[in-house]
């Protein structure tokens, strides 16, 4: 759920992302005669999340189970219509005019349309099957007649040959059996039957073998290949088939052959030996095919016209059915009062929506001609309310990033406010190249410019994700251009954009040897890295030192911001224990160590000192009393280090020990009656309910609380070190991106340029573009995105963000179109 429309336009208070909207638990008592209209108006408003007051009942035991079943049946019919339209190549049209139709009339109309469409489909299916059978029958007549023609020709040749033998003079060598064969009575000759049909080509070999084995070879099979695939009458699919004629002797053989034909899916068709009948049957079948074709075309035209009529109103009908089903589903969540004349509803709504909901109730009572109006009242509760942030298309993707980790607790400080800036900035630190940033910007602008078109289309999973986060990608692209200008990298190539380089070579060899040969001849380069560093031997050490120290500074700053936000939460929820025994010691511990390291980095940059900061930090713990020597950056550094080390050591027991004992004392005082106060407002109740500390439970386990605090303390102490080191991924990924870009530029583009060959140059440019897009603009973008996500979820949000709330899902018709049945 990205965007939630509040409705009401200017009557709503200004959007506040830092704290979720103030919520209230409300109760509605609605007369039965106006219940449907009331819920419909509340769905249009979309600012009330109903609670299920019938959770102990099954769906079939609820009041409006029959109406939901009726709506489900209408939804089934609409799905049937949609499938039929997709098969016919139609798509539902968006109608500008709103059809005013009653749901009961729509039910009758859908039933009539379904009956008509089913009948058309059934008749069309029967006609198509008959047509396919006639096509196969015609093929059998054509191929089988060829068999018999060839058989008759061979029989005529054999008779003429026998006749010539009889005319010849007899000799002693003439076999006696020949005379016996020729004088055999024709009435005693065996009569052969035959079966004709079509068998799938892939089964023809097995069909022949089974026939031979079942009849022990007492059959004669002839097959002819049908060149084009034919539509099978039963399955309706295109199948390659062979026409067959099986000659047999006896009824037993015939029964076996018929069973084998059924087993192999061979379609059998009658065939006459008479040539005249064959010609007549071919003519008759051809005529019937033409008639069936005309009838089928008329049926398809009638079906298309019907589907076109359905498609014109389909979306309106579908929305109306979805709306009706969601209304009755919501009504089933309401409970009947004792008199069974009213429905009682409970739900959460924003405080600012009180007037809007009351207006909707009044309109519903008036429009339904109800003699009694609905009653609206606010309930007092200690239950934790849902979290509701009003977002727009710009802030929605950033809120989704935070919600993917966990939904904020009610009125907890929302990291989204800072994530809007810090997330794309940390991404850009790892992705800094203003050439790549421009490519990313152009792709994002394409999505934004065609926003209306894409928002009305059904997109794929990846495209839908990119389109939903288009403004997040826009910010990432802009910050990438900014950091790319600081790094002075355009596809790894430096440019003197803001001024000439401040350095020049003493001689021609200095650029290839070391920067010691460079002398400063102008003012310092005004913005970003001086282009003279790129390509020199000192480039990697210089940029490594710069980016590593910059990563530590950014990490310590963001972790401090997280701890400050924990103070904001503690003050908001009036939790003084967390201020004194969590916020203060955590700030002292973090800044005594890594805040001091950040100070040393800034002093070293400002003074140009050669001090080794690794040595300073290591021996601050190992030998805090030793003299710093050449690593001293300012007077009094040794004394400051001792004081900071002592504060860091004191901060650990400060976090660990006092809080469990204070919580225990507060619990004891509360049970002695010292802390009982009357309920003043619902907001105070929410603040009490929102505080999830262990002392809110009836039973207080001191050992459990102490162990929990011990784990929390150890996690923070060790996490301060690991989290600071984790921010070095900013340096590592920035270096990897820069080096990959440099390799692609030098080894693909420049290498191809050096051959002075147009073909090689074109190939080099194509490979360079593919490598840049595939590796740097796709894989590196995804990698930097995931690392920036981890830094926010783990290193930043674990300092203050609980994320154990639940999202506000109001009953709204704006979402029914996105739900799948």
Give the termini separation: 18 Å
Main β-sheet description:
5 strands, antiparallel
Q: Taking Cα atoms only, what radius of gyration do you get, to the nearest Å?
A: 43 Å
Mean pLDDT: 86
What structural category do the secondary elements indicate? Answer: alpha+beta
pLDDT < 50 runs, ≥5 residues? 1-13, 176-184, 674-697
The total count of strands amounts to: 13
Count the DSSP helices.
24
In terms of DSSP E residues, the strand content is 5-15%
What form results from the Cα inertia axes?
extended
Helix % is 55-70%
GO molecular function, one term: proton-transporting ATPase activity, rotational mechanism
Family: Belongs to the V-ATPase 116 kDa subunit family.
InterPro entries: V-ATPase_116kDa_su, V-type_ATPase_116kDa_su_euka
Keywords: Coiled coil, Hydrogen ion transport, Ion transport, Membrane, Transmembrane, Transmembrane helix, Transport
Topology overview:
Elements: E1 23-31, H1 35-45, E2 49-50, H2 65-88, H3 103-167, H4 176-182, E3 193-200, H5 204-214, E4 220-225, E5 230-231, E6 238-239, E7 241-248, H6 251-263, E8 267-269, H7 275-331, E9 335-336, E10 342-350, H8 354-367, E11 375-379, H9 396-405, H10 416-430, H11 434-449, H12 451-455, H13 461-468, H14 470-487, E12 503-505, H15 510-513, E13 518-520, H16 539-572, H17 576-607, H18 613-622, H19 637-656, H20 658-671, H21 682-690, H22 702-726, H23 729-753, H24 758-796
Antiparallel strand pairs: 1-10, 1-11, 2-10, 3-7, 3-8, 4-7, 5-6, 9-10, 12-13
How would you explain this protein's 3D organization?
The structure is a single chain. The chain has 821 residues and is of the alpha+beta class. 59% of the residues lie in helices and 8% in strands. Strands 1, 2, 9, 10 and 11 form a five-stranded antiparallel β-sheet that branches. A hairpin with a 6-residue loop joins strand 5 (230-231) and strand 6 (238-239). The chain is extended and about 140 Å long. The model is unreliable at 1-13, 176-184 and 674-697 (pLDDT under 50).
């Amino acid at each position: 759920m990205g965007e939630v429309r509040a409705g009401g336009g200017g009557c709503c208070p200004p959007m506040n992302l830092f704290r979720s909207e103030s919520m209230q638990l409300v109760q509605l008592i609605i007369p039965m005669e106006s219940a449907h209209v009331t819920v419909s108006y509340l769905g249009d408003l979309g600012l009330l999340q109903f609670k299920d007051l019938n959770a102990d009942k099954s769906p079939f035991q609820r009041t409006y189970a029959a109406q939901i079943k009726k709506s489900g049946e209408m939804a089934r019919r609409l799905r049937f219509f949609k499938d039929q339209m997709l098969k016919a190549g139609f798509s539902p049209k968006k109608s500008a005019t709103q059809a005013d139709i009653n749901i009961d009339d729509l039910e009758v109309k859908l039933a009539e349309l379904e009956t008509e469409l089913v009948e058309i489909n059934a008749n069309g299916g029967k006609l198509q099957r008959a047509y396919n059978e006639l096509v196969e029958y015609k093929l059998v007549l054509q191929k089988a007649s060829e068999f018999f023609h060839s058989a008759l020709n061979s029989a005529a040749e054999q008779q003429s040959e026998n006749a010539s033998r009889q005319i010849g003079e007899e000799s002693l060598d003439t076999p006696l059996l020949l005379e016996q064969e020729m004088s055999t009575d024709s009435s005693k000759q065996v009569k052969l039957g035959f079966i004709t049909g079509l068998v799938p080509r892939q089964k023809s070999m097995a069909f022949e073998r089974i026939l031979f084995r079942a009849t022990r070879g007492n059959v004669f099979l002839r097959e002819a290949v049908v060149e084009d695939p034919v539509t099978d009458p039963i399955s309706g699919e295109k199948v390659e088939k062979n026409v067959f004629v099986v000659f047999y002797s006896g009824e037993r053989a015939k029964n076996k052959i018929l069973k084998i034909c059924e087993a192999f899916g061979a379609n059998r068709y009658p065939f006459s030996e008479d040539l005249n009948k064959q010609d007549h049957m071919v003519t008759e079948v051809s005529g019937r095919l033409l008639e069936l074709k005309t009838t089928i075309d008329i049926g398809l035209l009638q079906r298309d016209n019907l589907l076109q009529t359905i498609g014109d109103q389909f979306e309106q009908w579908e929305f109306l059915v979805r709306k009706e089903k969601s209304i009755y589903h919501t009504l089933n969540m309401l409970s009947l009062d004792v008199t069974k004349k009213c429905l009682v509803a409970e739900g959460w709504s924003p405080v600012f929506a009180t007037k809007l909901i009351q207006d909707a109730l009044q309109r519903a009572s008036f429009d339904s001609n109800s003699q009694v109006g609905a009653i609206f009242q606010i309930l007092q509760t200690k239950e934790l309310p849902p979290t509701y942030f009003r977002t727009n298309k710009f802030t929605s993707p950033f809120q989704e990033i935070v919600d993917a980790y966990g939904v904020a607790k009610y009125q907890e400080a929302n990291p989204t406010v800072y994530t809007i800036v810090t997330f794309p900035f940390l991404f850009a630190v790892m992705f800094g190249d203003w050439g790549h940033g421009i490519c990313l910007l152009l792709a994002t602008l394409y999505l934004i410019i065609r926003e209306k078109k894409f928002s009305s289309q059904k997109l794929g999973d990846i495209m839908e994700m990119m389109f939903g986060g288009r403004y997040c990608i826009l910010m990432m692209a802009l910050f990438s251009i900014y950091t790319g200008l600081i790094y002075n990298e355009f596809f790894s190539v430096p440019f003197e954009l803001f001024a000439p380089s401040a350095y020049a070579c003493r001689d021609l060899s200095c650029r290839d040897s070391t920067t010691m040969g460079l002398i400063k001849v102008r003012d310092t380069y005004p913005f970003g890295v001086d282009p003279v560093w790129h390509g020199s031997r000192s480039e990697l050490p210089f940029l490594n030192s710069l980016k590593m120290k910059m990563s530590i500074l950014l990490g310590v700053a963001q972790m401090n911001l997280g701890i400050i936000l924990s103070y904001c939460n503690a003050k908001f929820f009036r939790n003084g224990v967390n201020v004194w025994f969590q916020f203060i010691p955590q700030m002292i511990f973090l800044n005594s160590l890594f805040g001091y390291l950040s100070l040393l980095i800034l002093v070293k940059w400002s003074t140009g000192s050669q001090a080794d900061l690794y040595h300073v930090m290591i021996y601050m713990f190992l030998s805090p009393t030793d003299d710093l020597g050449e690593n001293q950056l300012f007077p009094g550094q040794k004394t400051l280090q001792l004081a900071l080390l002592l504060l860091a050591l004191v901060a650990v027991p400060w976090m660990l020990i006092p809080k469990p004992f204070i919580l225990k004392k507060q619990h004891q005082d509360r049970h002695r009656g010292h802390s009982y106060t009357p309920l003043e407002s619902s907001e105070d109740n929410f603040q009490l309910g929102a505080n999830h500390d262990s002392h809110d439970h009836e039973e207080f386990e001191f050992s459990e609380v102490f162990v929990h605090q011990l784990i929390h303390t150890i996690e923070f102490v060790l996490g301060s070190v690991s989290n600071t080191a984790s921010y070095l991924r900013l340096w590592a990924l920035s270096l990897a991106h820069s080096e990959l870009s440099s390799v692609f530029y030098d080894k693909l583009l420049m290498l191809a340029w050096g051959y002075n060959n147009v073909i090689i140059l074109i190939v080099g440019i194509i490979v360079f573009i593919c490598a840049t897009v595939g590796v740097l603009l796709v894989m590196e973008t995804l990698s930097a995105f995931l690392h920036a996500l981890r830094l926010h979820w783990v290193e930043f949000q674990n300092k203050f963000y609980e994320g154990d709330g639940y999202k506000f899902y109001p009953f709204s018709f704006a979402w029914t179109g996105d739900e799948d049945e």
